[in-house]
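Hi Prof. W.,

I finally got the Fimbria/pilus outer membrane usher protein prediction working! I wasn't sure whether to trim anything, so I left the full sequence exactly as given:
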Amino acid sequence: MFNRKLLGAILFIPTICCAVEFNVGVLDAVDRENIDLSVFSKVGYVLPGRYILGIKSNNFLIPELPVMFHYRGLAEESAEACITPDVLAKLGLKDESIKLISYWHNGECADFSELKGVGLRNAINEGYIALGIPLAYMEYADVDWVPPAFWDDGLPSLMLDYSATAYESRFKNKPIERKLSMYGTLGANLGAWRFRGDFQGGNQGGVETDERFNWSRIYAYRALPSINSTLIIGDNYLGSDLFDSFRYSGIALSSDDRMLPPALQGYAPEIRGVAKTNAKVTISQNANILYETIVPAGPFNIQELGRGVRGQLEVRVLEQDGSIQTFSVDTATIPYLTRPGSLRYKAALGKSSNSGYKSDKSGGILFGSGDFSWGVSNSWSLFGGSIFSEKYNAFALGLGRDLYQFGALSLHVTRSAANLANDNDRQGYSYRLNYSKRFDDIDGDIAFLGYRFSQHEYMSMNEFIEANKAQGNIGNSKSMYTVTGSKSFSSFKTSVYASYTHQDYWNILPEERIQLSINKIFDSGFIKGMSASLSFSKNVNKNSNGNMLSMNLSIPMGQGASANYSASRNNDVNSHDVTYSNYQNDGSNWQISAGVRDKESGSAESVRGYYAHEGAMASTTLSVGHESGEYWSAAATVRSAITITAEGAALHQQSVNGGTRLMLDTAGVGGVAVNGGRSQSNYWGKAVVGDVNSYARTSAAVDVNQLADDVEVSSPVVDATLTEGAVGYRKLSVQQGMKLMTTLTLPDGRYLPFGAQIVDAKGRMAGLVSDSGMAYLSGINSDSEFTATWSDSKCRVYIAEKYTRQSLATLTCVPY
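And this is what came out:
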């Protein structure tokens, strides 16, 4: 047999400048005259032709596209990759750098010789060409940011994202109550345009509707990367950082922070709370559902809301015992600071409207609005804006100051002038002060302080719209102050979170919300990783009042299991619960708990169960609960999505309705797990990774540990940077089929030369011929085809439609 170690050394010859001659006499081969190692004699040698490759520039990857290789000099030299002007435009080079580039091969291929330090490496076996470009030639130098040249608008597509929740309960001396609620988004993509229709039905946010189904929002939008902005047409919510949000129909153009480098972006809001029992949490804005899910008893933290969410959110927590918590969350952002010389803006023109498509007796209000922020210097920003209509106008002006290690501060003043339906003119001022500080050196904690005071005669646009509907005055805001902070003490394995919001009104009762929590991880004897938490919450508003103090102790039991004890006091009711939880690697987790509640009417025992599963095609949640002599209830939620493109379709998970996603093609091979099994290719070899961050580099990886024995993948990781709402598409090099050692012969019985290359029908390197025509092949299926090449010769191997392992022991390679 041949010397396998020597052949391995041949395959990994270091890069040298000249051709290499091999002494075939040292090879332990029976037929030394039938050896061809010419393919290895020239380092990095590439034959001319068309190859499907990606182009990696400074670790940014342009997806696979046809790349031509041409001889630039003598035929004995390797063919060179042709970088066309279309590809050149996607590399993110400065205009002055592009002017230095000349072209060869009839003006089709870029010549980088005038750009010193630019290097090009062929990595064909890895599926790409690598371009190294010094940052001095690049338009953008932030390594954590993918420049617009690499953003992908994705494929034309259709999508349906939905969430449905069924709820059934029976309370003492009451009939069975059944409810079904749903919401979702129907969408289509065409080029850079996104068309979306949000729908909802059933019992929404505690308000019964006569309509079983209604469209809550219909709109279209597209990214405008050249000006870092987004254009939206249709139903929308005012996304101003200066003025309160309200619903309208019209057109809006606004800067999009997500297109900026990470240091200049805002943060996505999170919703924290404490559930007494297994509960349904609904997050909405102006009666439009943004997110709904079932959570187990105890503290919850919802972080699935997108960065684009602005304004005040309404949170409704429906407990199994029928009680309801409601509170509001202000999605306050950091002060309005802009980098020096840059201008950020938001403009809208339209007509105020009700939620959905119900009649509006007031007819709506025509308006225009705009706000801006201009970076005056490294530390100062000037910002302002206005809303104008026939009977309502508002103007705002403010300053932002970067205090560097001491945080950031902003102050602005808003003046409003309103003429109500009863000819009551109202004019007033509102003042707002914001402060924030990011502690990047101590676990990236964020603190936020906000204060706002409004005079009695001041009205926001939203208050003006409501007052017109009511044909009179309504309760308007007087003052609001907010404090939010969190801190991690790594050395003590302790974290603390605190939030306080107080809202005063001129003519209705005030609202208040307090949240405090402290979490501690510790060891006790042989038990490692125990955790304890203490939390307090207080809500005071027109819908619900109450205090809740809870304590939780969790003891790990191994293999993802834990035992928990919790005690809480909610107003005058004391509760004690013991819970067993189990978190499994397949994306499932379940809990079962038993407890007792002490109240004025006596004690009551309860039992609850909770199950959640994050499947490849849907996420499901089930909840059941029973309290002796009081109630029993059950709830179930299913959240899923379907995405359809010309390349195929797939069911998959999706949390952000109508959001960005990435379709993966596994070359017709089903059951390929991606991203740890959260996604999986279907029968047709299509998988979709949902909830992809827009304008940010996203990687999707095949879980090679879950591959079947007859499946292999040569490049298990793909990258993509997608615009908002896009359906990206990437092909994975996946091969399925039998693997075996065979002997390859020519029709006259001679063995193929030692060193001949074997590629499959897709151009993938499948192996090399060794001594006596022996070769190891993979991916063998019915009608498979392989091509062997050596010197200037080629031959083709066909696999019969019906074959056995014995019939494949020797295969004939037919020259062509």
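Helices lie at 4-11, 85-88, 95-99, 461-470. Does that look reasonable to you?

Thanks,
D.
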